[in-house]
Amino acid sequence: MPLSLVRLALATLLLTIAQGCSRPPVVLPNDAYIWQRQWTPALVAAVQSNSDIISHWRVLAAQADANGQWQTTAPDWAALKASGKPIIAVIRIDGQLAKFDEKVLLQQVEGTLQTWRASGVPLAGIEIDHDCATARLPAYAHWLASLRATLHGNEHLSITALPTWLNSNALDAVLAQVDEAVLQVHAVQNPRVGLFDPQAARTWLDTFAAHMHKPWRVALPAYGSRVAWDRDGRVISIESERAMLVTGMESHELMADPQNLQDFTRQLAADPPQGLAGIVWFRLPTEQDARAWSPATWRAVLTHTPIDPVISAQLRSTDDPQLFDLVLANTGVGDGTPPATIKVSGRCPAADAINGYFMERNADGLVFQAREPGLLRPGRQRPIGWLRCEQGKESLHVES
């Protein structure tokens, strides 16, 4: 055989082997937390319009606060039934609970589950969300074993897990008591870093995979928080769902970036950690949820549809010929981060910034800089300042 044909045959063989060794992306099902305590028409609409891309709804059922007060929710049973999806009832137990009374908590959980079983929704199991300190993990494992014994045969037991638990020798004992775990990789470790760090998250996932020998999932953020911390850098409040009265020396609005999370989920599908069975999104967004992605952007992330926001700064005239509004507009597809800096050149003796921006003057004119811009939804506008200028709009120049 001629040498050229030998080389061609060898190249073909190597290419075939390489193609055979490459793994196609896996399909990671999406679950979503329904964490809202009020079942508004907007929430019901979100459940109805997103059931086609969701595997399970994980619904907040009850919560024990730090003082041990037990509060239950009142879901829209009809909406959950109509979705046709299995339901996981989530019990939130505050990690700062002063007294972890095992007997009382078991009774409270059992009472809540009886209500959910009688509701007629397709109850697939229960999830315990208890962000306790690592020192309490042995006691937590003991309680989970007691809880597991009370469940019906078709009900699975799930828990949320924290990255801080990865350094505890008691983690394996906790995981041995459950059918599934959801590793939470969204948190404010450092307010200046944000809600989600892809590199840290991947490290945590790989480490967790070595401990969890049953199916497990990862919880990813689709929301924002207002975080306040003191002058020593300690977080003193995190406001994600309800307004809080606590204020700090410094606070910022943090928002998970949709493109960042979409890229991360693609990487997970291409190279999943051992045992990863899916993704759980916190939380299901609605049209009225100001601290979450827009519903359209959320669907785009989950369905891997391109996100292409187009955000521009525009000067809008008012009834006063010398007074102008500086407005951001998103004419693209998907939520986007507004520009960090906007420059306006022209003779404007009076001006000010609002809605997450501050203003400075320099030799060239005015500079509007983002302090906490958040995300701007498609089709939305946001005023970020006003200007009183000596001449008409034609004499002004906006650069972003």
Describe this structure in words.
It is a single chain. This protein is an alpha/beta fold and 400 residues long. It folds into two domains: 274 residues, Glycosidases (TIM Barrel); 89 residues, Sandwich (Immunoglobulin-like). It is 26% helix and 30% strand. The protein has an eight-stranded parallel barrel. Helix 7 links the parallel strand 7 and strand 8. Helix 8 packs parallel to helix 9. The chain is elongated, with a radius of gyration of 26 Å. The relative contact order is 0.10. The N terminus is likely disordered.
Describe this protein with a few key phrases.
4-stranded antiparallel β-sheet, 20 strands, TIM Barrel, 400 residues, 30% strand, elongated, alpha/beta, 2 domains, Immunoglobulin-like
Outline the fold blueprint:
Blueprint (H helix, E strand, L loop, with lengths): L2 H19 L8 E5 L6 H10 L6 E8 L5 E3 L4 H7 L3 E7 L8 H18 L3 E8 L6 H12 L7 E6 L9 H5 L4 E5 L13 H12 L6 E6 L2 E6 L5 E5 L10 E6 L2 H13 L5 E7 L12 H9 L7 E7 L5 E8 L10 E5 L4 E4 L3 E6 L2 E6 L10 E8 L8 E3 L1
Parallel strand pairs: 1-2, 1-12, 2-4, 4-5, 5-6, 6-7, 7-8, 8-12
Antiparallel strand pairs: 2-3, 9-10, 9-11, 13-14, 14-19, 15-18, 15-20, 16-19, 17-18
Helix pairs in contact: 8-9
